[in-house]
Input
Amino acid sequence: MAAANGFEVFTHERDTKNKEKAVDTELVARGTLAIATTPAPAVLVIASGDRDFIPLVNIAHELKWTAEMCAFSSAYTHYGEMASAVDKVRPLDGSLDLIGECSFKWP
Output
């Protein structure tokens, strides 16, 4: 579905523990590229509470971006590293029924 809507899809093999560690690295690398090539500061919104994204938050801050984290409260520690690294935390608890298919059509 994502590819059919114009998104470039990347997949990674799982390790022996059925983990896809390369996915986070791919997102940080591509996020860094987007931040570095965008002419004006903007807002980085990370839909994860995973600490693996702290380097991306740090790059965003270095280039004067605002960084926000959207995640369910069970996915992060409220006063942990990731929540402390971002400028704003947006808990998704109570919003599950609002998350779904969007009628927006990409140009």
